[in-house]
Amino acid sequence: MKLVDESVRKDQKRQKYKHRADLLFIAGAALFFMIWAWQWNRFDLGLDGPDEWMRFDIIRYLTEHWDLPRGDNPAIINPIWGFSYAFHPYIPHMISALFIRIARFFTDDIHILVFTARLASVIFGTGTVWMSIKIARRLLKDRADQWIFLFLITFLPQMVYLNAYVNCESMAIFSTAVLIYGWLRGMDSRWNLKSCILLGTGLALCALSYVTAYGFLVCSFLFFCFSILLCQEKKWDFPALFKKGGIVLLVFMLLAGWWFIRNGILYQGDVLGIRSRDLCGEIHAQDLYKPSLHPTYKKDGLSFLKGVRAMCVGLGWHRDTFESFVGAFYDTSVRLPKLIYNLYKILFAAGILGCLLSFRKLFSVRKDGRWREEGILHWTFVLAIVIPNFLNLYASYAVDYQPQGRYSMPMLLPFQYFITLGITQIIDRLVKFKKARDVIKGALCFGLFLIAAYALRYYSLWIQAQ
């Protein structure tokens, strides 16, 4: 009996230690994001991140008027581009406006107010770290592998940067983390009420974040259907699918439906606001910036494949997108040293190679005459990686050439999951002793943090030189 009690106490102590380590990591990540947000608070350079100055127009309006502006409100229409970002959901900007109104009780210092507005992105970024920990604990068995996954996500320089200025991408990435965790909870619970509510909440967050993450709406629908119809005790249980799907839909509509109903009323049925935004830009933009005048390969009559070839071979779309996925700052013109991009190329290549070596194990969807839910999950991850990159590529081909990695960032969690699997597969095959493997994995985590810290220093020095 004493031996059993001692074992229980040791297990409780280990769990308590792990919980404290997780909380410390979350707090450290939040502090790191806030340091980045504060470091680049330079108004002689203008607002820092891509489009941040246009997004602050919405925040200023919300702060002063405390009501939701239409996208074509003259007070927030950009004089160059002729439109505003208020055609699309701006939940993070509402949070920023609330923070600014609170901060104004204590100070009118513009630097502090800008930093306060950026805290919305810090919060969503910290939420992504928190959800990533929950995901790692369910997806990866080895503790060291879990930490690699967390460091790959948290300290990718571009991820840190997105969590340090005003944007909607940080919320979009957070929503993908909530959805992935919802998928895992649904798998474990056979889609009980809580997991359905969680999935509906994640879908609402995703829909209210940024259009680049909308691929996760498709992925969630497919995984939810396949999981219930193929992987439960009763196959092709459509009554269960409709019942549980109804709960998910109800939660989604309660949390997110209001925005799209509002858009439909304001913009003659344009629930997404895209058509109305382009029309606004066509009317109000300066001549060179009207949507109809954006030069694209599609307008030139090239097919999609020929346009992609021209963008990649002639313009280096793939290179610029990769580098800005790893880290590109200010208006994306400030790039890190080539060595860092090359290190990430090696890291990602090793991860992909490791996954290919275990392809059958990872992606087999049938085993012993039964459907493998894990294999379906992995194929869903692949789709979640492909969709945002395709949308990014197609937008540059057909709408406006912008090779920016931030438009591919919704793939971050599933992509880094596969990279983690691949790297750890290679390490585990090459190194036989577990302690040695743990040392190597710990060194990798430390190296990822050092790169992020170097990126902070690198950009700080660039700002000082301006």
Short overview:
With 466 residues, this protein is an all-alpha fold.
Q: What low-confidence regions span 5 or more consecutive residues with pLDDT below 50? A: none
Strand % is under 5%
Terminal Cα span = 70 Å
Summarize the biggest pleated sheet: 2 strands, antiparallel
Structural class: mainly alpha
Shape: globular
Total beta strands: 4
What is the arithmetic mean of pLDDT?
93
The level of helicity is over 70%
The count of helical stretches stands at 18
Rg on CA atoms, Å: 23 Å
Q: Strand sequence of the main sheet, in spatial order?
A: 1-2
Q: Could you state the order of secondary-structure elements as H and E?
A: HHHHHHHHHHHHHEEHHEEHHH
Please tell me about this protein's structure.
With about 475 residues, this protein is mainly α. The chain has a domain of about 140 residues. Helices cover about 70% and strands about 0% of the residues. The protein contains 18 helices and four strands. Helix 1 runs antiparallel to helix 4 and helix 5 runs parallel beside helix 18. It is globular and about 70 Å long. The mean pLDDT is about 95. It comes from Diplocloster agilis. GO terms for molecular function: pentosyltransferase activity. Keywords: Cell membrane, Glycosyltransferase, Membrane, Transferase, Transmembrane, Transmembrane helix. It is found in: Cell membrane.
Characteristics:
4 strands; globular; two-stranded antiparallel ribbon; 466 residues; 2% strand; mainly alpha; 18 helices
Task: Describe the secondary structure blueprint for this structure.
Blueprint: H1 2-39, H2 52-65, H3 91-103, H4 110-139, H5 143-154, H6 157-162, H7 169-189, H8 193-207, H9 215-231, H10 238-266, H11 274-284, H12 304-315, H13 317-327, E1 328-329, E2 334-335, H14 338-357, H15 359-363, E3 366-367, E4 370-371, H16 373-398, H17 412-430, H18 434-465
Antiparallel strand pairs: 1-2, 3-4
Helix pairs in contact: 1-4, 2-3, 3-4, 4-5, 4-7, 5-17, 5-18, 7-8, 7-9, 8-10, 9-10, 9-16, 12-16, 14-17
